[in-house]
Model the fold of this input.
Amino acid sequence: MGRVLLVMGHRNTSGGDEPEVERTPKVVTAVERALTAKGHTVHVVQREDGDNDPDFTHGDLATVVTRCAHLIQANDLQVMIDVHFQGSPANESGCFGIFPDAPSVGDGKASNPLDVKVASRLAREVSNLTGIPRLMLPEPGGPGIMSERQTGVGLGGDRLGLFELTLSVRATCVRVIMEHGDIAADRNIIDAPWFYQKVARAYVRTVSAFFPLDGGTPDGGFHAFHPHRMLRTHSGAIGRRQPTVTADVVKTYTQGETVIADGFVHAENQFGDDRWARVVGTPRRWIHQSGLIDALKL
Done:
């Protein structure tokens, strides 16, 4: 099950383009309903900012993002998506997700593989369901994904505030800014019937793929053990909250310590191996193959 934080782009006193400001609550409301109906947990920062206005934060962008970081920590949220529409001077058609990319502070593309994957998957799903093409970008971006360094703010040498002020939660929460098409070039699609419902389906598909409702694992590549299997750990093996080297450490193991695993997944590569065992227990934890004496195989 996914634990999601949604942000209504520009719905704060820092302002923004009016056509965009008008539409971001419609996306968030549709997505909130669809994810909740599917069984995911959803928080919306504008609903939980304490000002009794469910669609607006009566404070600036820094106030919004500080509140985001607090909600992520307090509720152990797994993914934050800031909802926007593109308003480029070129009026170029396309949807894309922006991922954090500031290598100098340990928040670069290579340090955020899951953020990049979620941004890419969400852009692909939005494109497939709405008909808005993915914006094609060169490295460090790509089809439907943009590095924050490729944004206007990034090209000017600064960080995007959303990413800078949530650096403290980067190890436990995916952070994405989603641009759902160009407000001018894609207006006919954006304003067509059922657009917001289609976008909501894209979110459900994406969140369910990376944070499955059945307790599985990112992107559905889980190989279950029937029955569960006893495994032995190497000294210093680490159990993490997610199958990624940047996830929070739950436990450090001793040499020969036994754990019970219900399966494994192909996830982040480490030392030339991408296998991670899922250990039974609360909280659920993941151990990379390098931390295990026994080989992970069916």
User: Anything to note?
Assistant: The domain at 3-210 is CATH 3.40.630.40 (Aminopeptidase). The chain has a mean pLDDT of 91. The chain has two domains: 3-210, 223-291.
